[in-house]
Amino acid sequence: MTLATGSKLGPYEILGQIGAGGMGEVYKARDTRLERMVAVKVLPPHLSASPESRQRFEREAKTISQLSHPHICALYDVGREGETGEICVGDLGSRDVKHIGQSSSLAVYASPGYLLFARGSALVAQPFEAGRLEVRGEAVPLGVDLPSNSATSGLRALSASLDGTLCWHSQASATSQPVWFDRQGHEIGRLAEAATWYYPRLSPDGQQLAIARAVADTTVEDIWMIDLARNVTTRMTLDPADEAMPIWSPDQTRLVFNSSRKGAAADLYVMRADQPGSEELLLASEAPKGPDSWSPDGRSLTFEVSSPQSRQDLWLLPLEGDRKPVPFLVTPFSELNARFSPDGRWVAYTSDVSGAHEMYVQLFHESGGTWRVSTRGGQTPTWRGDGREIYYLAPDGMLMAAPVTGAAPFQTGTPTPLFKVAVPYTTDPQYDVSPDGRRFLVNQLISSKEEPITVLLNWAAVLKKP
User: Containing H/E element for 64?
Assistant: First the structure.
């Protein structure tokens, strides 16, 4: 696919071709939104047409877009125009955007001036001028085949030190299952079967569970519904892209979730809770985003937005009128995991403004203060059905309960520990509570597998071999 000078690729105006090869074509272009020069890489048809390749590429883009480090190039844009894939990266200081290249993993910088990354399953090194953000010459294979998960897990799987040491391992694989516990931590029931589950969310009446599940032998997630009375599971989304983070409408007739079917930005969709495959686009924008909570009056939706500039912020989407998103909490720090109180007056959320993730409560409509609830770290808050208790996870996996003792102003008692949970991740919601606060549905970790770490000393010596 060759792009003509003057044609448009999304917001980018093509000014001419810079180069071409087996991994795609590179074009000089103008970003018509920000009036800056960029380089755009267009993936070849055999890659852009592969759902598996696109999913892997887009998931890595979501991760790197939230990184901030002097030796890591910031990712400013990734997306698709029809069936075409493209990526742009930029310098953290000047924010000049230049193309780096296509790979099967995130790249890491290694002294004395190379980018190390996976091409397919092969580990390669390519000369790189950090000051210019430019690659030179050809990528050289290092004679190492990374395990398949390493090639898709980016910086979490590959690391290089200044003394020439390189190490990698496969991404951990986890199996979990929705499990009921009472307030003392005693198991009282299990749902569905062990699989790769995420983001459990109970319906307002506590009778159904919306949850994301990875398709077998892939990293692609779909939304599923579990009828709690019958323990029957139903797949709700059928698109080959990722769908995750389901939340319920207050009348429990609809679900909102995010999906990467139009690119890495993960747009918001809404669907009927009784009709699989009925989803409709609710909000599309260029930034990655995920829904958090639906207000009890049904008029507003809180959602998270990720960006290199302000990390994670909380926005509001009015569900009436022009439906134009407005900021709720936008700061230089991360705010996430927002949950409306049952009366809609308060919003509980997580923030790292103190230097560590803590749980806070803030008024929704009225102006007023912010109250910190957690005492030694806390994430993923949720409320009891009557609003008289707030729950959150402490850093050590302890499920905590804080009584709400006053509302004018907001007051809580000292949080008390309930029981420890083992969940796949602690930064995303992995539990929910029954409306009466007597039972907790936990996405309980069943098994976790870590691959051995492989260390390669003096990796640069491979480059000197004839």
Answer: helix 51-64
Same domain for 144 and 163, yes or no, is yes
Residues 332 and 241 both lie in one domain: yes
Per the omega criterion (within 30 degrees of 0), is the bond before 112 cis?
A: yes
119 with 268, same domain: the answer is no
- Please check whether residue 256 is in contact with residue 294, taking contact to mean a CB–CB distance below 8 angstroms: yes
450 within 8 A of 153, measured Cβ to Cβ: no
Tokens 């008024």 — which residue? Answer: 363
Q: Whole domain around residue 70: which residue ranges?
A: 8-171+451-464
Count of structural domains within the chain: 2
**pLDDT band for position 406 (cuts 50, 70, 90):** confident
Per-residue confidence band for 355, with pLDDT thresholds at 50, 70 and 90: confident
Residue 82 clears pLDDT 70, i.e. is over it: no
Give the number of C-alpha atoms closer than 13 A to the C-alpha of residue 200, restricted to the C-beta side: 31
Q: Is 121 exposed, middle or buried (0-12, 13-18, 19+ CB in 10 A)?
A: middle
DSSP string, 175-191: EEEEEEEETT--EEEE-
Which of 50-54, 399-403, 418-422 comes out lowest in average pLDDT?
50-54
Nearest partner of 94 among 33, 40, 36, judged by Cα: 36
Of residues 2 and 345, which shows the higher confidence score?
345
Residue 136 · residue 167 · CB < 8 Å:
no
Helix (H, G, I), strand (E, B) or coil at 241: coil
Q: Between vectors from CA 202 to CA 437 and to CA 222, what angle results, nearest 5°? A: 150
